[in-house]
Write a structure and sequence with these properties.
The complex is a heterodimer of chains A (524) and B (501).
Chain A lengths: L4 H18 L5 H24 L15 E11 L8 E9 L3 H18 L7 H20 L3 H10 L1 H11 L4 H29 L12 H5 L16 H17 L8 H8 L2 H26 L1 H6 L1 H20 L4 H21 L3 H32 L10 H4 L1 H15 L5 H16 L1 H7 L1 H18 L15 H19 L2 H24 L4
Antiparallel strand pairs in A: 1-2
Chain B lengths: L1 H8 L3 H19 L7 H15 L8 E3 L4 E3 L1 H23 L1 H4 L5 H20 L3 H19 L6 H32 L4 H9 L8 H21 L7 H8 L2 H27 E3 L6 E3 L5 H20 L5 H22 L2 H32 L10 H4 L1 H15 L5 H14 L5 H27 L14 H19 L2 H9 L7
Antiparallel strand pairs in B: 1-2, 3-4
Classes of the chains: A mainly alpha (524), B mainly alpha (501).
Chain lengths: 524, 501
């Protein structure tokens, strides 16, 4: 058997967690060291994974296209007359959809662990929770068994609750429980659909029900008299809505977004970085991995509403961002706006849009992570995030401002930086599908440039208030956490082909899966 | 006659042992006059022996003393649950300061735990309405005494009194229901009742049908009281809060399990006709009791969860949470296929571990801090990390989040409900309820982890290694069964067989 690299990447943080638990509480240096080392090793292995990854295989609904597959029986209950054999598998694998996400997660986690150095309180607990969250995130992206997916999915909640609740800002308790309840509400709906899918799907190789996601994607495996049998039935539409709510809360899609600003503002910097960089992608990843291939008929049925929701996210997020005085809150709302691009690209259901969507997911991860680190850097020094308190920082902190310029312009979508390419592709796709809502959505770009530049002007231009005379420029550690992200943003902006190469086969295939099964059903 | 008795008794070793243990425990207090807590070890050895001898019953699918008492895999499964929680509760009791400080009557205390256990053993097998009534009474009378054990504590007295009054009312209702059924069918054993119903003697629209509905509702009153199902739950919070915590723990797990077992047997045997091998069934006499149960289930979990939100006393909160859990488990009874019943059984295994664990932590913490208030749990994680960590695991499990045992329990319950057409709404109410429950469980771990205790209350609380080991006995399986639950599921699946004449 080959080296189980996916399990290694997933469970390495758990190992690190155990090591940290054994270290004495006061030994901050070693605790930090272990955390950084673990995330670095994880990242290096993710690069090995990438190097060994064959982008020509599409994956999605083809088991043969899944790479680095690990498959083991986990729970097996022999058959009884009244209940078929129960089989739950430990089934991991990556394709062009999950590969970029794994790479993104490991990168963001390294950066976040470096950004966690400003945490002082109860460091041991902090990094224990941090690493548990890390493991759960990678697990979600690698699982191909719905049951396994769900376990990892829910496993993210508790560490996140503690990370916000213990190490967060003044209103941390409120933000933490709001996050917890919102996301749990979303995931219980996913749970119900998961059970329904289990009873509807029969694994052709065993003849029993299965949690295997790939089997669930093949309509031939879904019995026509089961709850999700048939095409475009009410039950299927309801299931799609339930899944959509579950994933939309994570993205977050308007009107399920209200937890996000609270969570972001209260969370410590590194956790905001993870939240924006990885956790928000879980929602759109879930849509791509589960909703689209399993319910293509419903996806088509709800295509227009989803595009409209994407439009609302873009414009509403941008407008609210513009009204913010708090630097971090502005970026939180800009995240909502930018995730709207992913939504319209995804809902366009054509290759341009779908490629744009996943690329935007990746780019948003890196760009927003930069933005949150930048805010954190400023907050660590000034202990305020109010934009009107600042001015003229540019001359005082030139290196800091250099990174800010990259991040801001990437977020605005300046050509030459990665954000431009992915936004352009999302719009290309959307225009192709629905020119009306797509044109309205372009308003978001203008608004985005508006609030970003305005914020830049308020914080970096003008005269420096006297109280900030003593501000120090960015430290080497902070540069280390920003530089890799900046490099990725620039490189992928200049040469986006590298990225498209990873995922375009899978994404095109995903579009093909959705549209072809819809065409068979006569819906297109 | 002698032969019947002999052959019957040979199948009843555990029950016989418990009877003997009861007598021995009672008398042993005269031996251990100086150290009355030692009577607990007499009871404990009796329990362990009964546990071991349960093996003699496994695999049998029979009925003893005519059709009084079924000894079938279903009953044995629940007997295992009861005896295991009994052994654990005896372990709690030996560590409990509440009991130690009132040790002069410890012999009676332990003897009544034994008699209560014996009653529950009879309950899970009872297949004659009178046997059902008598066994329920045996359990009830023992638990009345036990919940009033702390005779110097007003709350404990109040608990016992309330328990007696509510108990008397519901057993009266039940007895009336039994008499109506007897009048209607001329039979007391559930097998004969089934035969009469199967003839179609009682059909919707007739007076007989209305009487049957009334009788069933009255009997549900008696069972529901044991399961603490709304609207028969009124005693639960007061008794749970007032009784010694060991008894609360026992009532919340074992007594509830016995209540579910007897209810399942009653409905499944008397009212259902299995029509195919995959467990599909039809309701005899057209009585739509599944809807009644579904409504009760919704009321029970919703009320339990909503009221739990407002509790400040942890014991009382756990009482309401146990009401809510009864509601989740009732969902499995609505389905009543083998599938649904197996789901209830799996749930009970998980519930036993996490709920007893939670009560154990409440007990040991109260012994150190003298308080069961949720507010006094502030900063506990920093004062007693092991115990608080175990508590957090139990609370997460009670909420039903993976990777814990509670999630697996809920998963199979929901799976069972969704496999039955027309009850998707019930599953949706169920999951929304578990989201509500997160709020009050999270309150406890918020206090433990997110807040700090008042000035002067930041000292480390030292728990002995025995206490830490005690909480790990529950915490470790809570995680392990959340990740590897195959054997439990299999055990439950193999144990759904009910004896049918």
């Amino acid at each position: 058997m080959d080296f189980p690299i996916l399990s290694f990447i997933t469970f390495l943080p758990v190992l690190g967690l155990l090591v940290i638990l054994l270290l004495p509480k006061e030994n901050h240096r070693n605790i930090r060291g272990v955390a950084v080392a673990v995330t670095l090793v994880q990242f290096i292995f993710a690069i090995f994974l990438w190097a060994g990854f064959d982008p020509s295989l599409a994956g999605i609904n083809a088991e043969s296209g899944m790479q680095f597959v690990e498959r083991m029986q986990w729970i097996t209950i022999p058959k009884t007359p009244w209940f078929g054999e129960i089989r739950i598998e430990y089934f991991m694998g990556v394709d062009g959809l999950s590969m970029p996400m794994v790479l993104l997660t490991t990168l963001i986690v390294v950066v976040a662990s470096l950004a966690s150095f400003s945490v002082k309180k109860n460091l041991k607990g902090y990094f224990a929770m941090f690493l548990l969250l890390d493991a759960a995130m990678i697990g979600v992206f690698c699982s191909l068994d719905f049951f396994l997916f769900y376990i990892f999915w829910e496993l993210m909640l508790l560490p996140m609750y503690f990370l916000i609740g213990i190490w967060g800002g003044p209103r941390r308790e409120y933000a933490a429980i709001k996050f917890f309840i919102y996301t749990l509400l979303g995931s219980v709906f996913i749970l119900l659909v998961m059970i329904g899918l289990y009873f509807s799907t029969t694994d052709p190789s065993t003849g029993f029900h299965t949690f295997n996601m790939i089997a669930m994607m093949d309509p031939a495996n879904v019995a026509s008299d089961s709850i999700f049998g048939g095409i475009a039935t009410t039950a299927r539409h309801l299931a799609f809505i339930a899944l959509f709510i579950g994933f939309a809360i994570k993205v977050p899609i308007f009107p399920f977004h209200t937890w996000l600003p609270d969570a972001h503002v209260e969370a410590p910097t590194a956790i905001s970085v993870i939240l924006a960089g990885v956790l928000l992608k879980m929602g759109t990843y879930g849509l791509m991995r589960i909703s689209l291939p399993m319910f293509p008929d419903s996806m088509l049925y709800f295509q227009l509403p989803i595009i409209i929701l994407g439009f609302i996210n873009i414009v509403y997020g941008a407008l609210v961002a513009m009204a913010q005085t708090d630097f971090k809150k502005m970026i939180a709302y800009s995240s909502i706006s930018h995730m709207g691009y992913v939504m319209i690209g995804l809902a366009a259901l054509n290759p341009q849009g779908m490629n744009g969507a996943i690329f935007q997911m990746f780019n948003h991860g890196t760009i927003t992570a930069m933005l949150f680190i930048l805010v954190g850097v400023l907050y660590d020094r000034a202990h305020t995030r109010k934009m009107s308190d600042f001015g003229g920082i540019y001359n005082k902190m030139p290196v800091y401002s250099f990174f800010t310029v990259i991040a801001f312009f990437a977020a605005i979508g300046l050509p030459g930086l990665s954000g431009f390419v992915s936004e352009a592709f999302c719009f290309l796709g959307a225009f192709h599908t629905n020119i009306f809502w797509a044109s309205l959505s372009t308003l978001g770009i203008v608004l985005g440039a508006g609030y970003m530049l305005w914020a830049f002007q308020r914080v970096f231009m003008g005269t420096l208030p006297e109280r900030w005379e003593g501000l120090k420029d960015i430290s080497v550690r902070e540069i280390l956490s920003l530089a890799p992200l900046a490099v990725v943003v620039v490189v992928l902006g200049v040469q986006p082909g590298i990225a498209f190469n990873w995922f375009s086969n899978s994404m095109n295939h995903l579009v093909e899966v959705v549209t072809s099964s819809a065409r068979v059903a006569g819906l297109m | 006659m002698n032969e019947i008795i002999q052959s019957s008794l040979s199948l009843l070793w555990p029950e016989l042992i418990l009877t003997v243990t009861f007598v021995l425990t009672l008398f042993s207090q005269f031996v251990f006059r100086k150290a009355p807590m030692r009577t607990g070890y007499v009871a404990l050895s009796g329990f362990v022996l009964a546990f071991l001898l349960l093996g003699t019953q496994s695999g049998s699918d029979a009925s003893v003393f005519g059709v009084m008492l079924a000894v079938d895999p279903f009953a044995v499964f629940f007997k295992y649950l009861i005896i295991i929680s009994g052994i654990l509760v005896l372990g709690f009791s030996l560590q409990s300061e509440e009991i130690r400080n009132n040790a002069e009557h410890a012999g009676e205390y332990f003897a009544f735990i034994v008699s209560m256990t014996l009653g529950m053993f009879l309950m899970v097998g009872a297949s004659n309405l009178l046997m059902m009534y008598l066994s329920i009474e045996l359990v009830s009378l023992s638990s009345y005494v036990l919940s009033g054990y702390l005779r110097n504590v007003e709350r404990s007295n109040e608990a016992a009194l309330k328990y007696v009054i509510f108990g008397a009312v519901s057993s009266g209702l039940m007895l009336y229901g039994i008499s109506l059924i007897y009048g209607l069918t001329g039979a007391l054993d559930i097998y004969s009742i089934r035969e009469v119903l199967a003839t179609g003697a009682v059909m919707p629209g007739s007076w007989a049908y209305a009487t049957l509905v009334a009788a069933v509702i009255l009997i549900i009153g008696g069972f529901g009281y044991k399961m603490s199902v709304v609207p028969f739950h009124y005693w639960t919070p007061d008794v749970y809060e007032g009784a010694p915590i060991t008894i609360t723990a026992y009532l919340s797990v074992a007594s509830k399990a016995a209540g579910f077992a007897i209810t399942i047997r009653f409905f499944k045997v008397a009212f259902l006709n299995t029509i195919s091998a995959n467990g599909t069934w039809e309701i005899l006499a057209g009585m739509n009791w599944e809807l009644i149960i579904a409504v009760l289930s919704v009321l029970t979990m919703t009320l339990g969860n909503l009221v739990a939100l407002w509790q400040d006393n942890l014991k009382r909160m756990l009482a309401y949470s146990s009401i809510a859990h009864a509601g989740y488990m009732l969902m499995g009874l609505v389905v009543a296929t083998d599938n649904g019943i197996a789901a209830i059984m799996v749930y009970f295994v998980m519930y036993l571990i996490m709920n007893l664990g939670a009560f154990y932590v409440v007990m040991v913490v109260a012994q150190k801090t003298g308080s069961e208030d949720i507010d006094d749990y502030r900063g506990l994680a920093y004062r007693a990390p092991w115990v608080a960590g175990a508590m957090a695991i139990f609370l997460v499990s009670l909420t039903g989040l993976p990777p814990t045992a509670g999630f697996i329990g809920k998963l199979w319950i929901f799976a069972a409900v969704l496999s039955k057409p027309g009850f998707v709404w019930l599953a949706i109410i169920g999951v929304i309820n578990s989201v509500i429950s997160l709020y009050y469980y999270a309150r406890v771990f918020r206090n433990m982890y997110l807040r700090q205790g008042d000035e002067g209350e930041t000292r480390t609380i030292h728990f002995g290694s025995r206490t830490i080991a005690g909480s790990l006995i529950f915490a470790v399986p809570t995680i392990v069964f959340g990740l590897y639950f195959g054997p439990i599921l299999e055990w439950a699946k193999n144990s759904v067989t009910l004896f049918l004449r």
